Amino acid sequence: MTSAQDADAQWWATAVSHVEPGSIELRERPVQDLIGTVGLVDVIWLMLRGSTPAPRESALLEAALVAGVDHGPQAPSIAAARMAVTCGVGLNNAVATGVNMLGDTHGGAGQQCVEMLTDIRDLRASGGGWQQAAQEVMADWQSRSRYLPGFGHRFHPVDPRRDPLIRLVQQAVSDNVVGGDFLNAGLAVEGILRRRRAGARPVPMNIDGATAVIYAELGFSAPLARGLFVLSRSVGILAHAWEESGQGRRNKGPIPRDVLPARLPQPKDA
C-alpha cells in the first residue's frame, strides 16, 4: 500500500465495520456469523458498544425500545411524517421528516433525564442520601427550566409505560443485572414531586424518565439515550407514514380542510 493509499484508508478508519471484497465484519464479527443467530437488539448493542449484551441486558434494552415506538398521530414527529408522505415524497423522506422533529423539546427529554440522574448519582456519591442529592440537583435544573425532564405527561395522568418498565428494572437490580443507582435517583425525584404536590395532580415518571433509567443502568451515555429513542420511534413513524400513503390524500395539512377558517387569526404579538 502506498503512502497515499494508507492516508486514504486512515481517513475513513473505523472500528464499527470493515468491508472488503467478499467480507463484511461488524465490530470484527463476520456478518454471516450474526445472521440468524443474533437478534436486532443485540446487534444495536454490538454496533454501539463493541460487544454483545447478556440476555437480561438485551431484554431490558428491548423493553425500553418497544415502549417508545409510538404515541399516536398527535406526536409532532408522527404528524409531520404523515403530512410529508402526502406531498409526493418517498417513505425514506417521510421518515426523515419525522425523525428531524425529534429535538430538545420533543424527543430530547430522555437524554436530559439521563444527565439529571447522573448528576444526582454523582452528588450522592460525594456524601448524603438520595433525597438530599435529588433535591439539590432538582433545584439546579428548575432554576433553568420549569420542566424536569422525564417527569409528568401532558396527556396521561400516569404514563401507562412507567410501571412495567420500572418493575423490570427493579427485578434486574434484585438479580444483580444492573446496579440500581439510576433507579434510586429517579425514584427519589418522583418521591419529592409526590410530596410537593400532595392533593394536586401527580407528576410521576413518564416514558422518557423510565427509559432514561434503563439506558443509564445499562451504561449508555446521555446522547445515546436520544439516539436509541430515535431508533425506537422510527418504527412508529414508518408505520404511520406507510398507512397514510395508502389513504389517497394529497397535501395533507395540520387540520381538515372543512374546518379551515376563512381567515386565520393573527398571532398575539403581531
TrEMBL record:
The keyword Transferase applies. GO terms for cellular component: cytosol. GO terms for molecular function: citrate synthase activity; lyase activity. The keyword Transferase applies. It comes from the Bacteria. Transmembrane segments: none annotated. Its EC number is 2.3.3.16. It holds the Pfam family Citrate_synt. SUPFAM superfamilies: Citrate synthase. One of its GO terms (biological process) is carbohydrate metabolic process. Pathway: Carbohydrate metabolism; tricarboxylic acid cycle. InterPro entries: Citrate_synth-like_lrg_a-sub, Citrate_synth-like_sm_a-sub, Citrate_synthase, Citrate_synthase_sf. Residues 246-270 are annotated as: Disordered. It is an enzyme of class 2 (transferase). Keywords: Lyase, Transferase. Belongs to the citrate synthase family. PANTHER family: CITRATE SYNTHASE, CITRATE SYNTHASE, PEROXISOMAL. This is citrate synthase (unknown stereospecificity).
